[in-house]
Every structure is written in C-alpha cells, then in structure tokens.
UniProtKB/TrEMBL annotation:
TM region positions: 120-138
Classification via Pfam families: CARD (PF00619)
GO BP term (any one): regulation of apoptotic process
Signal peptide residue numbers: none
Topology with respect to the bilayer: Single-pass membrane protein
Protein name per Swiss-Prot or TrEMBL: Caspase recruitment domain-containing protein 19
Domain CARD span(s) in chain numbering: 38-96
UniProt cross-references to PROSITE patterns, sorted A to Z: CARD
Record localization: Endoplasmic reticulum membrane; Mitochondrion membrane
Organism expressing this protein natively: Oriolus oriolus
C-alpha cells in the first residue's frame, strides 16, 4: 500500500479533535521544511503554520498538499510524525492494518517453538516406544538366542506398557520358536 493511500486512510484519524496539538503540527511542518530532503518550501511552511487558520484546516490542507506531491512526500510526513508523535504514529489505523498478520504467512518465531512445546513427557514416551521397538526387533532376530530373556523382560512389563500390548508381544514371542 502506498504512503499516499495510507495517508488518505489516516486523514480522518489525524484531523479529528485533540489527536495532534498545535506544537506537534508545527514541529512536523518545520521538520518537513528544514530536514533533507526538503519537502515543504519556506512559503508552504509559513502557509501551514499560519496561526490565524484553525488547526484542523491547516492540518487538512497539509495532508491534501502532501498527497498531491506524491508518495515520497507522504513517506516523509510519516517519518516526521513518528519522530514527533510516536504514540499517535503507532495508533494510526493504517499501522494497525499493517500489524495484523497475514493468515497465509508463516510466523518464524512461532514456527521455532512448534516442535518444542510438547514437553519432557512426550519425549520420554517417544523414547520408550523407540527403545521398546528396538528391543523387540533385537529379540525377534533369528540369529540371536535371547528369546527366553526377552520373555522374562516382557513378563515384568505391565507397569511400563499396557497389558494388551504385552499380551501381543508374548504371543509373538511364543509363535517364533514354532516357526
């Protein structure tokens, strides 16, 4: 979104009563006039700092003038607003739209913790399953003769694994010597 469109979107918010006081508007105008690159000429700055006109009128005219000048001028206005009225700058409606995350965008900070939010119990459960499968595979290998020991270990395992799983493992171990 271009700065001109953002400024058009924020215009009502900025010109509403008591958002910007006269001192802050004068500081913004002076910054746009004096800081490189010079956005406002001396005559334009005097016109927008005229104390005879109401603050609302001067600010509206300034914003319309900057929109006519182009995107770079509007960008410099936002920079001056951020420097002189940071809280107001952060509360702008266009800033709130920019801050809302895109639902299709991946949040890398959140993605970093996605795998680590399970906790130690999940790790121990996965490790136990992996160790159990490794032990089971080792015991079922036809080259090893540890089936009797494995039967004893699995016999004391109802505390570690469920009875149904233990019964299946025992039936499998009993079926191996028959083959």
């Amino acid at each position: 979104q271009s700065y001109c469109h953002r400024l058009q979107h924020d215009m009502y918010f900025l010109t509403s009563t008591s958002r910007l006081n006269e001192q802050v508007v004068d500081k913004i105008i002076l910054q746009l006039n004096r800081v490189y690159p010079q956005i406002l000429t001396n005559e334009e700055a005097e016109k927008f700092r005229n104390p005879k006109a109401s603050l609302h009128t001067r600010l509206s005219d300034l914003l319309k003038h900057l929109q006519k000048k182009g995107d770079r001028h509007c960008q410099e206005f936002y920079r001056a607003l951020q420097i002189n009225a940071e809280q107001l700058f952060n509360d702008l409606p266009s800033r709130k739209i920019l801050k809302t995350p895109d639902p299709t965008e991946i949040d890398t900070d959140k993605e970093q913790y996605m795998l680590n939010d399970r906790g130690p119990v999940f790790f121990l459960a996965c490790f136990s399953v992996a160790a159990g499968l490794a032990l089971f595979w080792y015991c079922c290998n036809s080259e090893t003769q540890v089936i009797g020991r494995a039967r004893r270990i699995l016999g004391f395992s109802p505390i570690i694994i469920g009875r149904h799983v233990r019964n299946i493992c025992m039936l499998y171990l009993e079926d191996i010597p028959r083959n």
